[in-house]
Write a structure and sequence with these properties.
There is one protein chain. By secondary structure, this protein is an alpha+beta fold. Helices cover 34% and strands 18% of the residues. It is globular, with a radius of gyration of 27 Å. α16 packs across α17 (360-383), α17 packs parallel to α21 (448-455) and α22 runs antiparallel to α23 (635-648).
Length: 728
């Protein structure tokens, strides 16, 4: 039953006795965030590895594991509390007298529709039912246990005092980095006030910070942008000069992100009960990494996490049980990793309650892998032996613990996969799956129809908004339709500002002053903005490049819809190709046509998500300079053009091609006059003939159909482009 906004029920005395005495979890977190070390939470262990996913949830009333005993003791000393006055904290966490709800199933089983049908009809009977089940009503909904309720209350408190928390966050960041060269250069030494910060510190892009980034990467250990040492670089999916951007991070940044993760399970528990009764099938992978000339690691943010002690040595937690062995996740060989993760997922098919990957494209690659290798997987299940193709000893040891001969399961897998119809294959293979846990916003939205086909229409949960630069916020309605996903920014993750964005306005030149920035609390519903961040790691007023649409507010916190990455034309996986890169790639490939007297009259492109993996499609209209002597290029020439374009694209694209995340680039040659027809169609729909120019990327169905109906020939890249990790 939906609860009125702001309603909260404490329940009878029996429920109230379950609440631990002394400082609550939310108070401890607030104390750490705002008073002790500026959100430097030590000793974080056992959290969910993925942004936008469910994370570690301790049993009700157990002290949070990411707050060290010394830190908790310091806090209690400061507030006048002691262990002898707080007996609940000394009790074993599984003692039912302290956590009476822990061993109860918080919700009845069955579909969400069934549970709504059985919900109490009035607020009074709902309150009685909630109290009887040991659950607590909050403004966000009925919490599964007291522990969840405290975390949901923290969300409410943070979003109600949004601007005040933001001002404190900025002051804390400036105080901590007071000795940094960058802030001194802009007159902020000793200053922590917001007015001075806005007046003196410029808004910057990655190119503006490149000199400082390169100094750090090359080994300069002075306090350049942060007073705390930069411990590694997180490689962004965005690129600069064709290479991944290097985002600096500090040692305690992971702790702040883990605190945001800890809010996810309480939110998802509001909508999907019983996740602690089964397992998650998540396809998780690491990517290549390198070291900068100065010796700092440079790697993707999730690779950094999966290789951390927090992930590798995480304790058991019922909400975070995965079918994939850690050894398989940490294997750099994509085939061995995928094969073993898929095999273990099939072995636990009836226990799987959710299926996911980081991006929607990753989950579709897993389905394609099953299509290609189901016979070998079924044979391994039948015989109880692992394929000889899996040579990594740690994987073989991990899989051996769960792989036993199971002819019945093998026959089932073979029978299902041998069918021509793969519609609903996810729910056929994993029948208890409640939802898909994948990112389907932004460029990933193109995969929604395919995911619906393979999943039989399962809900798709987008739970968190994050990036390599910073983690931002949560989706407080994670089971909503993908088209309605909004993210509520959490004000304790960094200091955020907004740059007004007008999609119809011409781009600003480098000499133009940037628009006046807006505080998040002053955002206007219905308008678009570019996000600007200031972080503990030393990024100050940094333009992330994300375009966000303000959909509304939760309390005083804005709720955003992710619109797109700024200037990105094409994206299949984590790649982002802009117009300038595409233009340069086309020009490079066009040189191969010169011996034939052929030139490219016009071109456009699309990201084709109908194949697995998806791939770039570039439409070319050609002209022969001398029709009498000119020879139409052979198919092999166009294939070389495909590869030449791929060689010209950025390193993120080339890495995706080498790792099977992106399919071979395709050139479709269209007949003469096709782009005239495209222009005529656009003008018929209201475009100005004076201002019309051919789009460099198309996604509108009728335009794509028109282009495809005029195709003369299709050509694919014959090989993967060269790729090597970042080197400077």
């Amino acid at each position: 039953m939906a609860l009125p906004a702001g309603s909260r029920v404490e329940g009878p005395a029996a429920v109230r006795r379950a609440r631990p005495r002394g400082p609550t979890w939310s108070r401890l977190v607030r104390a750490v965030t705002h008073g002790v070390g500026h959100a430097c939470l030590p000793n974080v262990h056992g959290y969910r590895p993925l942004p936008r996913r469910a994370i570690y949830t301790p049993p009700c009333n157990q002290p949070p594991p990411h707050l060290s005993l010394s830190l908790i003791h310091t806090f209690r000393t400061n507030v006048g509390s002691s262990e002898k006055n707080n007996p609940a904290r000394n009790t074993h966490p599984t003692d039912p007298s302290i956590c009476p709800t822990q061993q109860e199933k918080p919700f009845s089983s069955g579909s969400l529709v069934d549970r709504r049908a059985m919900a109490p009809a009035t607020a009074e009977t709902a309150a009685v039912a909630v109290a009887a089940a040991g659950r607590v009503k909050t403004a966000l909904g009925v919490a599964a246990c007291e522990r969840d309720a405290e975390k949901l209350e923290l969300i409410e408190e943070l979003t109600k005092g949004f601007d005040a928390v933001q001002e404190k966050m900025l002051a804390a960041i400036l105080a901590r980095n007071n000795g940094a060269e960058y802030l001194r250069r802009h007159g902020m030494e000793g200053r922590t006030d917001r007015d001075a910060f806005k007046a003196r510190v410029p808004v910057v892009t990655y190119e503006d910070l490149r000199p400082e980034i390169e100094r750090i990467a090359n080994g300069d250990r002075s306090n350049i942008i942060s007073s705390h040492p930069i411990t590694e670089f997180l490689t962004s999916s965005g690129t600069s000069a064709g290479e991944r951007k290097l985002m600096p991070t500090v040692e305690d940044e992971l702790d702040r992100r883990q605190m945001l993760y800890s809010l996810l399970i309480p939110v998802i528990n509001l909508y999907v009960p019983g996740l602690d009764k089964g397992k998650g099938l998540y396809f998780l992978f690491i990517k290549s990494e390198t070291k900068t000339p100065g010796g700092l690691p440079a790697r993707p943010v999730l690779t950094s996490y999966y290789k951390s002690d927090q992930f590798k040595h995480r304790p058991y937690e019922p909400y975070l049980v995965y079918t994939s062995p850690t050894a398989a996740i940490l294997c750099t060989d994509s085939f061995q990793s995928m094969y073993s993760q898929m095999l273990c997922g099939l072995l636990a098919r009836t226990e799987v309650l959710r299926v996911g990957a980081v991006f929607a494209s990753g989950l579709l690659r897993a389905i394609r892998f099953l299509q290609l290798h189901w016979k070998e997987l079924a044979r391994d299940i039948e015989m109880g032996t692992l394929s000889a193709k899996i040579v990594e000893p740690s994987i073989r040891d991990a899989v051996a613990e769960v792989l036993k001969p199971d002819p019945e399961l093998a026959a089932f897998v073979a029978a299902e996969c041998a069918k021509d119809d793969w519609e609903g294959i996810i729910t056929r293979m994993w029948p208890n799956t409640k939802y898909l846990d994948v990112i389907v916003t932004g460029a990933m939205a193109q995969y929604i129809p395919t995911l619906k086909f393979y999943s039989g229409g399962l809900p798709m949960a987008c739970t968190m908004y994050a990036s390599s630069e910073c983690y931002f916020g949560l989706n407080l309605r994670p089971m909503c339709d993908p088209s309605e996903v909004t993210y509520t920014i959490m004000p304790n993750m960094g200091y955020f500002e907004l740059m007004p964005h007008d999609p119809e306005a011409p781009p600003l030149s480098r000499d133009d002053p940037p628009p006046r920035l807006v505080d998040l609390a002053d955002a206007e519903v219905g308008k678009e903005y570019e996000l600007v961040i200031t972080t503990y790691a030393g990024l100050c007023r940094y333009r992330v490049g994300d375009i966000l649409h303000v959909a509304g507010f939760h309390n005083a916190a804005p709720e955003f819809r992710f619109v797109r990455r700024k200037n990105v034309l094409l994206s299949i996986d984590s790649d982002k190709t802009d117009e300038a890169e595409l233009q340069a790639a086309v020009e490079r490939a066009a040189r191969l046509l010169e011996p034939y007297g052929a030139t490219i009259v016009e071109y456009t492109s699309e990201a084709d998500a109908t194949t697995i993996p998806g791939h770039y499609v570039v439409y070319w209209e050609l002209m022969l300079k001398d029709r009498r002597d000119g020879l139409w290029p052979e198919a092999a020439v166009f294939e070389k053009c495909c590869l030449e374009m791929e060689e010209a694209l950025n390193s993120v694209y080339r890495q995706g091609r080498n790792g099977d995340a992106i399919g071979p680039l395709e050139i479709r040659v269209v007949r003469g006059g096709t782009f005239e027809e495209v222009m005529d169609y656009a003008i018929s729909r209201g475009a100005s003939i004076n201002q019309y120019k051919a789009p460099r990327c198309v996604s509108f169905g009728p335009i794509i159909e028109l282009l495809n109906s005029r195709v003369l020939s299709k050509h694919f890249s014959p090989a993967c482009p060269k790729y090597g990790p970042y080197k400077k």
